[in-house]
């Protein structure tokens, strides 16, 4: 589907409805991508300031327990070594602020930095949802 033929409603759970990504779309988007489940690495948690390398190497179980208690992660996948970030009650990323801006933008995880160009359910496409006005 080309951008010029885009006419449907974007459904977050169906990447086939997403529109081709253009950088300017983020300026008027309601941050739909910030309601996707986000898996991050231990390195991402270090960058975010929620873990130290020592924790990852020597105290992983304690770190997992602490991050769950603090509401930073939902779970840890021991098979792939990925942490799933917690979501707010509305499904938004735990780091999305009240104005729908990323509160950790300068330290955001790699997957967020690369989405939607190199990371996400459909590379090169985004779940653009225009900001509601009025």
Question: How does this model look, in words?
Answer:
The protein is 21% helix and 11% strand. With 134 residues, it is of the alpha+beta class. The strands form two sheets. Strands 2-4-3 form a three-stranded antiparallel β-sheet. Strand 3 (73-77) and strand 4 (82-85) form a beta hairpin. The protein starts with 18 loop residues before the first strand and ends in an 8-residue tail after the last strand. The model is unreliable at 1-7 (pLDDT under 50).
Write the layout of secondary structure elements.
Elements: E1 19-20, E2 39-40, H1 42-48, H2 53-58, H3 60-69, E3 73-77, E4 82-85, H4 110-114, E5 125-126
Antiparallel strand pairs: 1-5, 2-4, 3-4
Task: Name its key features.
alpha+beta, about 20% helix, about 130 residues
Q: Let me know the average pLDDT.
A: 87
Structural class: alpha+beta
What strand line-up does the widest sheet have?
Answer: 2-4-3
Q: Got a strand count? A: 5
Count of alpha and pi helical runs? 4
The percentage of residues in β strands lies in 5-15%
Q: How can the largest sheet be summarized?
A: 3 strands, antiparallel
- Report the uncertain regions: 1-7
Query: What shape does the CA trace take?
Result: elongated
Based on CA atoms alone, the radius of gyration comes out at: 16 Å
As for the number of domains, it is 1
Helicity level, as a percent range?
10-25%
Element string (H = helix, E = strand): EEHHHEEHE
Distance between the termini: 31 Å
